[in-house]
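Hi R.,

Here are the chain sequences for the assembly we discussed:
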Amino acid sequence: MPRSGRAAAAILSCLMFVVFVAIWHMATLPTAGVQTADDEYAKLLGSNAAKGQKSAFPSPKDVALKMWEHAKDPFFVRGTNDQGIGIQLAYSVGRVLFGFGLAVLVAIPVGFLIGMSPLFYRAFDPFIQVLKPISPLAWMPLALFTIKDSATSSIFVIFICSLWPMLINTAFGVSAVRREWLNVARTLEVSPLRKAFQVVLPAAAPTIMTGMRISVGIAWLVIVAAEMLVGGTGIGYFVWNEWNNLSISNILCAILLIGLVGMLLDQILAWLTQAVSYPE
Amino acid sequence: MSNEFLKVEGLSKTFAAARGGAALTVFENVNFTINKGEFVCIIGHSGCGKSTILNVLAGLDDASGGVVIMDEREVAGPSLDRGVVFQGHALMPWLTAKKNVAFAVKSRWPHADRAKVDEICQRYIDLVGLTGSENRRPAELSGGMKQRVGIARAFAIEPKMLLLDEPFGALDALTRGVIQDELLKICAATHQTVFMITHDVDEAILLADKIMLMSNGPGAHIAEIVVNTLPRNRSRHTIHKDPQYYPIRNHLVDFLVSRSKNFTEQPPADYDPKHPPLVTPGLADAGLAIPESLLNSQTPPLARVINH
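And here is the predicted structure of the full complex:
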Protein backbone atom coordinates (compact mmCIF):
# COMPACT_ATOMS: atom_id res chain seq x y z
CA MET A 1 0.00 0.00 0.00
CA PRO A 2 1.35 3.49 -0.78
CA ARG A 3 2.40 5.69 2.08
CA SER A 4 -0.61 7.99 1.87
CA GLY A 5 -2.95 4.97 1.94
CA ARG A 6 -1.30 3.69 5.09
CA ALA A 7 -1.63 7.07 6.75
CA ALA A 8 -5.29 7.26 5.77
CA ALA A 9 -5.88 3.81 7.27
CA ALA A 10 -4.19 4.89 10.50
CA ILE A 11 -6.33 8.03 10.68
CA LEU A 12 -9.44 5.96 10.06
CA SER A 13 -8.41 3.52 12.81
CA CYS A 14 -7.97 6.41 15.26
CA LEU A 15 -11.32 7.84 14.23
CA MET A 16 -13.07 4.49 14.82
CA PHE A 17 -11.41 4.25 18.22
CA VAL A 18 -12.56 7.75 19.16
CA VAL A 19 -16.12 7.03 18.04
CA PHE A 20 -16.12 3.78 19.99
CA VAL A 21 -14.87 5.48 23.16
CA ALA A 22 -17.36 8.30 22.68
CA ILE A 23 -20.29 5.88 22.41
CA TRP A 24 -19.00 3.97 25.42
CA HIS A 25 -18.69 7.23 27.31
CA MET A 26 -22.23 8.34 26.45
CA ALA A 27 -23.66 4.96 27.35
CA THR A 28 -22.07 5.01 30.78
CA LEU A 29 -22.89 8.61 31.74
CA PRO A 30 -24.36 8.64 35.26
CA THR A 31 -28.09 9.28 35.13
CA ALA A 32 -29.49 11.58 37.75
CA GLY A 33 -31.77 9.23 39.63
CA VAL A 34 -34.05 9.94 42.50
CA GLN A 35 -32.88 8.72 45.88
CA THR A 36 -35.30 6.02 46.97
CA ALA A 37 -33.65 4.69 50.09
CA ASP A 38 -33.60 6.64 53.29
CA ASP A 39 -30.41 8.51 54.18
CA GLU A 40 -28.93 5.96 56.55
CA TYR A 41 -29.41 3.13 54.09
CA ALA A 42 -28.10 5.25 51.19
CA LYS A 43 -24.80 5.69 52.98
CA LEU A 44 -24.45 1.96 53.26
CA LEU A 45 -25.37 1.32 49.62
CA GLY A 46 -23.15 3.90 48.01
CA SER A 47 -24.39 6.69 45.81
CA ASN A 48 -25.21 4.71 42.68
CA ALA A 49 -27.29 2.05 44.32
CA ALA A 50 -29.02 4.65 46.44
CA LYS A 51 -30.12 6.41 43.27
CA GLY A 52 -31.64 3.17 42.02
CA GLN A 53 -29.07 2.62 39.27
CA LYS A 54 -28.18 -0.83 38.10
CA SER A 55 -24.65 -2.11 38.56
CA ALA A 56 -22.56 0.62 36.99
CA PHE A 57 -20.65 -0.32 33.90
CA PRO A 58 -17.33 1.51 34.14
CA SER A 59 -16.81 4.50 31.90
CA PRO A 60 -13.75 4.73 29.63
CA LYS A 61 -12.22 7.08 32.16
CA ASP A 62 -12.65 4.53 34.99
CA VAL A 63 -10.92 1.87 32.92
CA ALA A 64 -8.13 4.24 31.86
CA LEU A 65 -7.48 5.18 35.48
CA LYS A 66 -7.49 1.53 36.50
CA MET A 67 -5.09 0.76 33.70
CA TRP A 68 -2.77 3.52 34.84
CA GLU A 69 -2.90 2.07 38.35
CA HIS A 70 -1.89 -1.35 37.01
CA ALA A 71 0.82 0.15 34.82
CA LYS A 72 2.37 2.01 37.75
CA ASP A 73 2.85 -1.13 39.79
CA PRO A 74 2.34 -4.27 37.71
CA PHE A 75 4.46 -6.68 39.71
CA PHE A 76 3.38 -6.38 43.35
CA VAL A 77 2.67 -9.42 45.47
CA ARG A 78 0.49 -8.81 48.52
CA GLY A 79 -0.60 -12.38 49.12
CA THR A 80 -1.91 -15.23 47.02
CA ASN A 81 -5.07 -13.48 45.88
CA ASP A 82 -3.59 -10.03 45.43
CA GLN A 83 -0.84 -9.94 42.89
CA GLY A 84 -0.01 -7.42 40.20
CA ILE A 85 -1.52 -7.89 36.74
CA GLY A 86 2.00 -8.09 35.26
CA ILE A 87 2.78 -11.09 37.46
CA GLN A 88 -0.44 -12.80 36.45
CA LEU A 89 0.31 -12.19 32.78
CA ALA A 90 3.83 -13.51 33.26
CA TYR A 91 2.46 -16.73 34.77
CA SER A 92 0.18 -17.21 31.78
CA VAL A 93 2.82 -16.39 29.18
CA GLY A 94 5.26 -18.71 30.97
CA ARG A 95 2.78 -21.61 30.89
CA VAL A 96 1.97 -21.00 27.24
CA LEU A 97 5.63 -20.87 26.25
CA PHE A 98 6.47 -23.98 28.28
CA GLY A 99 3.55 -26.05 26.98
CA PHE A 100 4.09 -24.73 23.46
CA GLY A 101 7.81 -25.49 23.65
CA LEU A 102 7.12 -29.08 24.68
CA ALA A 103 4.66 -29.38 21.80
CA VAL A 104 7.32 -28.09 19.37
CA LEU A 105 9.72 -30.77 20.59
CA VAL A 106 7.16 -33.48 19.90
CA ALA A 107 5.26 -32.13 16.89
CA ILE A 108 8.18 -31.27 14.62
CA PRO A 109 10.06 -34.60 14.75
CA VAL A 110 6.83 -36.62 14.61
CA GLY A 111 5.49 -34.37 11.85
CA PHE A 112 8.71 -34.95 9.93
CA LEU A 113 8.31 -38.70 10.27
CA ILE A 114 4.70 -38.60 9.16
CA GLY A 115 5.45 -36.27 6.28
CA MET A 116 8.39 -38.32 5.02
CA SER A 117 6.75 -41.71 5.18
CA PRO A 118 3.37 -42.49 3.61
CA LEU A 119 3.22 -45.56 5.85
CA PHE A 120 3.43 -43.52 9.05
CA TYR A 121 1.11 -40.94 7.55
CA ARG A 122 -1.62 -43.50 7.13
CA ALA A 123 -0.89 -45.14 10.47
CA PHE A 124 -1.04 -41.88 12.44
CA ASP A 125 -3.89 -40.34 10.51
CA PRO A 126 -6.88 -41.93 12.34
CA PHE A 127 -5.46 -40.94 15.74
CA ILE A 128 -4.83 -37.38 14.64
CA GLN A 129 -8.29 -37.11 13.11
CA VAL A 130 -9.93 -38.25 16.36
CA LEU A 131 -7.71 -36.36 18.80
CA LYS A 132 -7.57 -33.08 16.90
CA PRO A 133 -11.20 -31.97 17.36
CA ILE A 134 -11.22 -32.64 21.13
CA SER A 135 -11.50 -29.43 23.09
CA PRO A 136 -8.26 -29.15 25.02
CA LEU A 137 -10.20 -28.38 28.20
CA ALA A 138 -11.80 -31.82 28.02
CA TRP A 139 -8.37 -33.18 28.93
CA MET A 140 -8.27 -31.10 32.10
CA PRO A 141 -9.94 -33.56 34.52
CA LEU A 142 -7.82 -36.38 33.18
CA ALA A 143 -4.72 -34.24 33.58
CA LEU A 144 -5.66 -33.23 37.13
CA PHE A 145 -6.35 -36.84 38.04
CA THR A 146 -3.11 -38.24 36.65
CA ILE A 147 -0.70 -35.33 37.18
CA LYS A 148 -2.24 -34.21 40.49
CA ASP A 149 -0.90 -30.70 40.08
CA SER A 150 -3.00 -27.84 38.75
CA ALA A 151 -0.17 -25.76 37.31
CA THR A 152 1.32 -28.73 35.46
CA SER A 153 -2.14 -29.73 34.28
CA SER A 154 -2.68 -26.39 32.61
CA ILE A 155 0.71 -26.74 30.92
CA PHE A 156 -0.39 -30.15 29.69
CA VAL A 157 -3.56 -28.68 28.27
CA ILE A 158 -1.51 -26.05 26.44
CA PHE A 159 0.76 -28.80 25.16
CA ILE A 160 -2.10 -30.84 23.82
CA CYS A 161 -3.82 -27.92 22.10
CA SER A 162 -0.59 -26.63 20.50
CA LEU A 163 0.33 -30.06 19.24
CA TRP A 164 -2.16 -30.64 16.43
CA PRO A 165 -1.75 -27.58 14.19
CA MET A 166 2.03 -27.92 14.34
CA LEU A 167 1.94 -31.66 13.73
CA ILE A 168 -0.41 -31.36 10.78
CA ASN A 169 1.41 -28.40 9.24
CA THR A 170 4.82 -30.01 9.65
CA ALA A 171 3.61 -33.25 8.07
CA PHE A 172 1.99 -31.32 5.24
CA GLY A 173 5.00 -29.07 4.71
CA VAL A 174 7.38 -32.00 4.67
CA SER A 175 5.28 -34.11 2.32
CA ALA A 176 4.78 -31.18 -0.04
CA VAL A 177 8.48 -30.46 -0.57
CA ARG A 178 8.96 -30.07 -4.31
CA ARG A 179 9.99 -33.31 -5.94
CA GLU A 180 12.66 -31.63 -8.02
CA TRP A 181 14.55 -30.50 -4.90
CA LEU A 182 14.47 -34.05 -3.58
CA ASN A 183 15.67 -35.26 -6.98
CA VAL A 184 18.55 -32.80 -6.83
CA ALA A 185 19.47 -34.23 -3.43
CA ARG A 186 19.18 -37.77 -4.81
CA THR A 187 21.40 -37.15 -7.83
CA LEU A 188 23.96 -35.59 -5.49
CA GLU A 189 23.86 -38.67 -3.22
CA VAL A 190 23.03 -36.52 -0.20
CA SER A 191 22.79 -38.44 3.08
CA PRO A 192 19.30 -38.75 4.63
CA LEU A 193 20.25 -36.58 7.61
CA ARG A 194 21.71 -33.84 5.44
CA LYS A 195 18.69 -34.04 3.18
CA ALA A 196 16.37 -33.62 6.17
CA PHE A 197 18.20 -30.59 7.55
CA GLN A 198 19.37 -28.85 4.40
CA VAL A 199 16.59 -29.57 1.93
CA VAL A 200 13.38 -30.65 3.61
CA LEU A 201 13.59 -28.43 6.70
CA PRO A 202 14.27 -25.15 4.89
CA ALA A 203 11.73 -26.04 2.21
CA ALA A 204 9.02 -26.82 4.77
CA ALA A 205 10.00 -24.11 7.26
CA PRO A 206 7.39 -21.54 6.21
CA THR A 207 4.60 -24.12 6.51
CA ILE A 208 5.95 -25.34 9.85
CA MET A 209 6.15 -21.77 11.15
CA THR A 210 2.58 -21.12 10.06
CA GLY A 211 1.55 -24.15 12.12
CA MET A 212 3.46 -22.75 15.09
CA ARG A 213 1.72 -19.42 14.67
CA ILE A 214 -1.70 -21.07 14.68
CA SER A 215 -0.68 -23.12 17.71
CA VAL A 216 0.49 -20.19 19.77
CA GLY A 217 -2.75 -18.38 19.00
CA ILE A 218 -4.84 -21.32 20.15
CA ALA A 219 -2.64 -21.79 23.24
CA TRP A 220 -3.21 -18.19 24.23
CA LEU A 221 -6.98 -18.63 23.83
CA VAL A 222 -6.97 -21.80 25.89
CA ILE A 223 -4.76 -20.63 28.74
CA VAL A 224 -7.35 -18.08 29.93
CA ALA A 225 -10.04 -20.74 30.13
CA ALA A 226 -7.69 -23.28 31.70
CA GLU A 227 -6.64 -20.85 34.42
CA MET A 228 -10.25 -19.98 35.15
CA LEU A 229 -10.79 -23.70 35.78
CA VAL A 230 -7.74 -24.50 37.87
CA GLY A 231 -7.30 -21.15 39.59
CA GLY A 232 -4.31 -20.08 41.59
CA THR A 233 -2.39 -17.77 39.32
CA GLY A 234 -2.46 -16.42 35.80
CA ILE A 235 -4.45 -13.90 33.85
CA GLY A 236 -7.40 -16.28 33.45
CA TYR A 237 -7.59 -16.68 37.19
CA PHE A 238 -7.26 -12.90 37.56
CA VAL A 239 -10.32 -12.36 35.35
CA TRP A 240 -12.33 -14.89 37.32
CA ASN A 241 -11.19 -13.43 40.63
CA GLU A 242 -12.18 -9.93 39.54
CA TRP A 243 -15.57 -11.26 38.46
CA ASN A 244 -16.02 -12.52 41.99
CA ASN A 245 -14.95 -9.06 43.18
CA LEU A 246 -17.39 -7.58 40.67
CA SER A 247 -14.64 -5.28 39.47
CA ILE A 248 -15.64 -4.78 35.85
CA SER A 249 -12.86 -2.20 35.38
CA ASN A 250 -10.26 -4.79 36.26
CA ILE A 251 -11.84 -7.33 33.94
CA LEU A 252 -11.78 -4.81 31.10
CA CYS A 253 -8.13 -4.06 31.80
CA ALA A 254 -7.36 -7.78 31.73
CA ILE A 255 -9.28 -8.27 28.49
CA LEU A 256 -7.34 -5.47 26.85
CA LEU A 257 -4.03 -6.90 28.05
CA ILE A 258 -4.93 -10.42 26.92
CA GLY A 259 -5.55 -8.98 23.48
CA LEU A 260 -2.30 -7.05 23.43
CA VAL A 261 -0.17 -9.98 24.60
CA GLY A 262 -1.89 -12.28 22.11
CA MET A 263 -1.13 -9.82 19.34
CA LEU A 264 2.48 -9.62 20.46
CA LEU A 265 2.89 -13.42 20.43
CA ASP A 266 1.33 -13.58 16.99
CA GLN A 267 3.56 -10.81 15.68
CA ILE A 268 6.69 -12.55 16.94
CA LEU A 269 5.71 -15.74 15.14
CA ALA A 270 4.73 -13.78 12.03
CA TRP A 271 8.14 -12.15 12.05
CA LEU A 272 9.85 -15.54 12.43
CA THR A 273 7.75 -16.94 9.57
CA GLN A 274 8.84 -14.03 7.44
CA ALA A 275 12.46 -14.75 8.33
CA VAL A 276 12.35 -18.36 7.09
CA SER A 277 10.15 -17.88 4.05
CA TYR A 278 11.61 -17.56 0.60
CA PRO A 279 10.27 -16.06 -2.61
CA GLU A 280 10.01 -18.52 -5.46
CA MET B 1 37.99 -52.43 -26.78
CA SER B 2 35.27 -50.10 -27.96
CA ASN B 3 35.03 -46.53 -26.80
CA GLU B 4 31.43 -46.96 -25.75
CA PHE B 5 31.03 -45.04 -22.55
CA LEU B 6 27.32 -45.46 -22.07
CA LYS B 7 25.42 -48.43 -23.35
CA VAL B 8 21.64 -48.75 -23.25
CA GLU B 9 20.25 -52.17 -24.09
CA GLY B 10 16.65 -53.20 -24.58
CA LEU B 11 15.28 -50.42 -22.40
CA SER B 12 11.51 -50.32 -22.00
CA LYS B 13 8.98 -48.61 -19.79
CA THR B 14 5.51 -49.96 -19.14
CA PHE B 15 2.94 -48.44 -16.85
CA ALA B 16 0.70 -50.96 -15.13
CA ALA B 17 -2.84 -51.14 -16.39
CA ALA B 18 -5.37 -48.88 -14.75
CA ARG B 19 -8.57 -50.64 -13.69
CA GLY B 20 -10.15 -52.03 -16.82
CA GLY B 21 -7.51 -50.56 -19.13
CA ALA B 22 -4.56 -52.04 -20.92
CA ALA B 23 -0.97 -51.64 -19.78
CA LEU B 24 0.75 -48.73 -21.46
CA THR B 25 4.14 -49.27 -23.00
CA VAL B 26 5.70 -45.88 -23.51
CA PHE B 27 8.83 -47.09 -25.27
CA GLU B 28 10.39 -50.46 -25.85
CA ASN B 29 13.59 -52.03 -27.08
CA VAL B 30 15.55 -48.81 -26.93
CA ASN B 31 19.21 -49.37 -27.74
CA PHE B 32 21.95 -46.83 -28.15
CA THR B 33 25.48 -46.06 -27.15
CA ILE B 34 27.23 -42.84 -26.35
CA ASN B 35 30.97 -42.44 -26.72
CA LYS B 36 33.17 -40.58 -24.31
CA GLY B 37 33.16 -36.86 -25.00
CA GLU B 38 30.20 -37.10 -27.32
CA PHE B 39 27.23 -34.71 -27.26
CA VAL B 40 24.02 -36.56 -28.02
CA CYS B 41 20.59 -35.00 -28.40
CA ILE B 42 17.32 -36.85 -28.40
CA ILE B 43 14.34 -35.44 -30.26
CA GLY B 44 10.79 -36.70 -30.34
CA HIS B 45 7.23 -35.67 -29.72
CA SER B 46 5.79 -35.36 -26.22
CA GLY B 47 4.81 -38.72 -24.79
CA CYS B 48 7.53 -40.73 -26.49
CA GLY B 49 9.34 -41.16 -23.19
CA LYS B 50 12.40 -38.97 -23.67
CA SER B 51 12.23 -37.66 -20.13
CA THR B 52 11.75 -41.15 -18.77
CA ILE B 53 14.86 -42.33 -20.61
CA LEU B 54 16.79 -39.42 -19.13
CA ASN B 55 15.46 -40.17 -15.66
CA VAL B 56 16.47 -43.79 -16.03
CA LEU B 57 19.95 -42.72 -17.07
CA ALA B 58 20.02 -40.41 -14.04
CA GLY B 59 18.88 -43.26 -11.80
CA LEU B 60 15.80 -41.33 -10.70
CA ASP B 61 13.37 -43.68 -12.41
CA ASP B 62 13.35 -47.42 -12.96
CA ALA B 63 12.92 -48.95 -16.37
CA SER B 64 10.55 -51.88 -16.78
CA GLY B 65 13.14 -53.78 -18.76
CA GLY B 66 16.63 -53.48 -20.14
CA VAL B 67 19.90 -52.25 -18.73
CA VAL B 68 21.97 -49.10 -18.71
CA ILE B 69 25.70 -49.57 -18.43
CA MET B 70 27.93 -46.60 -17.83
CA ASP B 71 31.67 -46.90 -17.65
CA GLU B 72 31.33 -50.69 -17.44
CA ARG B 73 28.99 -50.55 -14.46
CA GLU B 74 25.25 -50.98 -14.38
CA VAL B 75 23.31 -47.87 -13.48
CA ALA B 76 21.24 -48.54 -10.37
CA GLY B 77 20.10 -45.41 -8.61
CA PRO B 78 21.35 -41.85 -8.77
CA SER B 79 25.04 -41.10 -8.62
CA LEU B 80 27.41 -38.17 -8.47
CA ASP B 81 28.90 -39.56 -11.68
CA ARG B 82 25.94 -38.17 -13.58
CA GLY B 83 25.10 -34.49 -13.29
CA VAL B 84 21.55 -33.50 -14.11
CA VAL B 85 20.28 -30.14 -15.33
CA PHE B 86 16.57 -30.17 -14.70
CA GLN B 87 13.91 -28.74 -16.93
CA GLY B 88 12.68 -26.27 -14.33
CA HIS B 89 16.14 -25.29 -13.01
CA ALA B 90 15.30 -26.92 -9.61
CA LEU B 91 17.31 -24.40 -7.65
CA MET B 92 16.64 -24.16 -3.94
CA PRO B 93 15.03 -20.75 -3.53
CA TRP B 94 16.26 -20.22 0.03
CA LEU B 95 19.90 -20.41 -1.06
CA THR B 96 21.88 -17.87 -3.05
CA ALA B 97 23.21 -18.80 -6.49
CA LYS B 98 26.62 -19.60 -5.05
CA LYS B 99 25.23 -21.61 -2.14
CA ASN B 100 23.16 -23.66 -4.58
CA VAL B 101 26.38 -24.57 -6.33
CA ALA B 102 28.10 -25.08 -2.97
CA PHE B 103 25.42 -27.57 -1.97
CA ALA B 104 26.50 -29.76 -4.89
CA VAL B 105 30.21 -29.17 -4.32
CA LYS B 106 29.91 -30.18 -0.67
CA SER B 107 28.06 -33.32 -1.71
CA ARG B 108 30.86 -34.24 -4.10
CA TRP B 109 33.74 -33.37 -1.76
CA PRO B 110 32.33 -33.63 1.79
CA HIS B 111 35.74 -33.10 3.36
CA ALA B 112 36.78 -30.07 1.35
CA ASP B 113 37.44 -27.02 3.50
CA ARG B 114 35.49 -23.84 3.11
CA ALA B 115 38.09 -22.05 1.03
CA LYS B 116 38.29 -24.96 -1.40
CA VAL B 117 34.50 -25.16 -1.76
CA ASP B 118 34.36 -21.43 -2.29
CA GLU B 119 37.05 -21.56 -4.93
CA ILE B 120 35.31 -24.33 -6.89
CA CYS B 121 31.94 -22.56 -6.70
CA GLN B 122 33.42 -19.30 -7.89
CA ARG B 123 35.16 -21.04 -10.77
CA TYR B 124 31.92 -22.50 -12.10
CA ILE B 125 29.90 -19.35 -11.40
CA ASP B 126 32.48 -17.49 -13.49
CA LEU B 127 32.36 -20.20 -16.14
CA VAL B 128 28.65 -19.70 -16.76
CA GLY B 129 29.08 -15.93 -16.74
CA LEU B 130 27.35 -15.12 -13.48
CA THR B 131 30.22 -13.26 -11.83
CA GLY B 132 28.73 -10.56 -9.66
CA SER B 133 25.39 -12.31 -9.18
CA GLU B 134 26.62 -15.11 -6.95
CA ASN B 135 25.00 -13.74 -3.81
CA ARG B 136 21.56 -13.27 -5.29
CA ARG B 137 18.75 -15.66 -4.60
CA PRO B 138 17.00 -17.46 -7.48
CA ALA B 139 13.97 -15.17 -7.17
CA GLU B 140 16.24 -12.24 -7.97
CA LEU B 141 17.68 -13.91 -11.09
CA SER B 142 16.18 -14.02 -14.57
CA GLY B 143 15.11 -17.32 -16.09
CA GLY B 144 18.30 -17.56 -18.10
CA MET B 145 20.48 -16.83 -15.10
CA LYS B 146 18.68 -19.48 -13.03
CA GLN B 147 19.29 -22.04 -15.73
CA ARG B 148 22.97 -21.05 -15.78
CA VAL B 149 23.18 -21.66 -12.05
CA GLY B 150 21.65 -25.08 -12.70
CA ILE B 151 24.31 -25.75 -15.33
CA ALA B 152 27.08 -24.52 -13.01
CA ARG B 153 25.74 -26.83 -10.29
CA ALA B 154 25.77 -29.82 -12.62
CA PHE B 155 29.26 -29.06 -13.94
CA ALA B 156 30.71 -28.28 -10.52
CA ILE B 157 30.57 -31.90 -9.38
CA GLU B 158 32.69 -32.83 -12.39
CA PRO B 159 30.42 -35.68 -13.44
CA LYS B 160 31.47 -38.29 -15.93
CA MET B 161 28.34 -37.51 -17.84
CA LEU B 162 25.89 -34.66 -18.04
CA LEU B 163 22.15 -35.15 -18.50
CA LEU B 164 20.16 -32.16 -19.68
CA ASP B 165 16.37 -32.34 -19.64
CA GLU B 166 15.29 -29.71 -22.12
CA PRO B 167 17.22 -27.09 -20.20
CA PHE B 168 16.42 -24.12 -22.41
CA GLY B 169 12.78 -24.86 -23.11
CA ALA B 170 11.49 -22.06 -20.91
CA LEU B 171 13.88 -19.40 -22.16
CA ASP B 172 13.36 -16.77 -24.79
CA ALA B 173 15.21 -17.24 -28.08
CA LEU B 174 17.89 -14.62 -27.44
CA THR B 175 18.81 -15.89 -23.99
CA ARG B 176 18.74 -19.44 -25.28
CA GLY B 177 21.25 -18.60 -28.00
CA VAL B 178 23.66 -17.04 -25.55
CA ILE B 179 23.51 -19.98 -23.15
CA GLN B 180 23.82 -22.48 -25.99
CA ASP B 181 27.06 -20.80 -27.03
CA GLU B 182 28.29 -20.96 -23.47
CA LEU B 183 27.35 -24.61 -23.09
CA LEU B 184 29.17 -25.39 -26.33
CA LYS B 185 32.23 -23.55 -25.09
CA ILE B 186 32.23 -25.30 -21.71
CA CYS B 187 31.70 -28.73 -23.25
CA ALA B 188 34.52 -28.17 -25.68
CA ALA B 189 36.80 -27.14 -22.83
CA THR B 190 35.88 -30.02 -20.50
CA HIS B 191 35.30 -32.77 -23.13
CA GLN B 192 32.09 -33.51 -21.30
CA THR B 193 29.89 -36.41 -22.38
CA VAL B 194 26.37 -35.07 -22.71
CA PHE B 195 22.91 -36.50 -23.21
CA MET B 196 20.31 -33.84 -23.84
CA ILE B 197 16.60 -33.70 -24.54
CA THR B 198 15.41 -30.94 -26.80
CA HIS B 199 12.42 -29.96 -28.91
CA ASP B 200 14.42 -27.49 -30.89
CA VAL B 201 15.84 -28.81 -34.16
CA ASP B 202 18.30 -25.92 -34.56
CA GLU B 203 19.53 -26.38 -31.02
CA ALA B 204 20.18 -30.05 -31.73
CA ILE B 205 22.17 -29.29 -34.88
CA LEU B 206 24.20 -26.64 -33.12
CA LEU B 207 25.04 -28.70 -30.05
CA ALA B 208 24.90 -32.38 -30.87
CA ASP B 209 27.32 -34.75 -32.54
CA LYS B 210 24.54 -37.31 -32.87
CA ILE B 211 20.82 -36.70 -32.88
CA MET B 212 18.57 -39.59 -31.92
CA LEU B 213 15.11 -39.46 -33.40
CA MET B 214 12.32 -41.11 -31.48
CA SER B 215 9.11 -42.26 -33.06
CA ASN B 216 5.82 -41.38 -31.40
CA GLY B 217 4.65 -43.17 -28.28
CA PRO B 218 3.13 -45.40 -27.10
CA GLY B 219 5.51 -48.12 -28.13
CA ALA B 220 8.15 -45.61 -29.20
CA HIS B 221 11.52 -46.65 -30.61
CA ILE B 222 14.67 -44.88 -31.58
CA ALA B 223 13.92 -44.67 -35.27
CA GLU B 224 17.30 -43.54 -36.45
CA ILE B 225 20.41 -41.76 -35.36
CA VAL B 226 21.41 -38.72 -37.36
CA VAL B 227 25.13 -38.05 -37.42
CA ASN B 228 25.84 -34.36 -37.38
CA THR B 229 28.50 -34.06 -40.03
CA LEU B 230 29.01 -30.34 -39.56
CA PRO B 231 32.48 -29.56 -38.20
CA ARG B 232 32.58 -29.45 -34.44
CA ASN B 233 33.69 -25.87 -34.18
CA ARG B 234 30.26 -24.74 -35.39
CA SER B 235 28.84 -21.46 -34.18
CA ARG B 236 25.36 -20.05 -34.05
CA HIS B 237 26.32 -17.22 -36.37
CA THR B 238 27.70 -19.21 -39.27
CA ILE B 239 26.10 -22.63 -38.96
CA HIS B 240 23.16 -21.89 -41.24
CA LYS B 241 25.56 -20.93 -44.06
CA ASP B 242 27.08 -24.41 -44.17
CA PRO B 243 25.77 -26.38 -47.15
CA GLN B 244 25.18 -29.37 -44.89
CA TYR B 245 22.94 -27.43 -42.53
CA TYR B 246 19.67 -27.45 -44.45
CA PRO B 247 19.81 -31.08 -45.57
CA ILE B 248 20.21 -32.09 -41.91
CA ARG B 249 17.58 -29.67 -40.69
CA ASN B 250 15.11 -30.75 -43.38
CA HIS B 251 15.71 -34.35 -42.51
CA LEU B 252 14.96 -33.73 -38.83
CA VAL B 253 11.88 -31.60 -39.49
CA ASP B 254 10.63 -34.08 -42.03
CA PHE B 255 10.95 -36.86 -39.49
CA LEU B 256 9.15 -34.93 -36.75
CA VAL B 257 6.37 -33.67 -38.98
CA SER B 258 5.53 -36.72 -41.04
CA ARG B 259 7.57 -39.85 -40.43
CA SER B 260 7.55 -40.10 -36.62
CA LYS B 261 3.81 -40.75 -36.51
CA ASN B 262 3.78 -43.82 -38.74
CA PHE B 263 7.10 -45.18 -37.72
CA THR B 264 5.84 -46.94 -34.61
CA GLU B 265 3.12 -48.79 -36.51
CA GLN B 266 4.88 -49.39 -39.79
CA PRO B 267 8.63 -49.44 -39.35
CA PRO B 268 10.69 -49.96 -42.54
CA ALA B 269 11.22 -53.59 -43.48
CA ASP B 270 14.91 -53.58 -42.65
CA TYR B 271 14.50 -51.73 -39.34
CA ASP B 272 16.23 -53.41 -36.42
CA PRO B 273 15.60 -51.66 -33.07
CA LYS B 274 18.82 -53.20 -31.70
CA HIS B 275 20.81 -51.27 -34.29
CA PRO B 276 18.94 -48.12 -35.26
CA PRO B 277 20.31 -46.92 -38.61
CA LEU B 278 22.97 -44.22 -38.58
CA VAL B 279 22.18 -41.63 -41.21
CA THR B 280 24.17 -38.71 -42.54
CA PRO B 281 21.76 -36.43 -44.34
CA GLY B 282 24.43 -33.75 -44.40
CA LEU B 283 26.62 -35.85 -46.69
CA ALA B 284 24.18 -37.76 -48.82
CA ASP B 285 20.47 -37.70 -49.52
CA ALA B 286 18.25 -38.21 -46.51
CA GLY B 287 17.68 -41.70 -45.23
CA LEU B 288 20.80 -43.30 -46.66
CA ALA B 289 22.62 -45.43 -44.17
CA ILE B 290 26.37 -45.07 -44.42
CA PRO B 291 28.63 -48.05 -43.77
CA GLU B 292 30.76 -47.92 -40.64
CA SER B 293 34.05 -47.70 -42.57
CA LEU B 294 32.89 -44.69 -44.51
CA LEU B 295 31.63 -43.06 -41.35
CA ASN B 296 34.97 -43.16 -39.65
CA SER B 297 36.80 -41.64 -42.57
CA GLN B 298 34.31 -38.89 -43.28
CA THR B 299 32.86 -37.66 -40.02
CA PRO B 300 35.03 -35.27 -38.12
CA PRO B 301 33.07 -35.32 -34.82
CA LEU B 302 33.26 -39.05 -34.27
CA ALA B 303 36.86 -39.23 -35.43
CA ARG B 304 37.77 -36.45 -33.08
CA VAL B 305 36.08 -38.15 -30.20
CA ILE B 306 37.90 -41.38 -30.83
CA ASN B 307 41.19 -39.56 -30.74
CA HIS B 308 40.61 -38.27 -27.23
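The CA atoms of residues 12 and 28 of chain B lie 4 Å apart. The interface with chain A takes residues 58-60, 78-80, 82-84, 86, 88, 90, 92-94, 103-104, 107-108, 137-139, 153, 157 of chain B (CB under 8 Å).

Let me know if anything looks off.

Best,
T.
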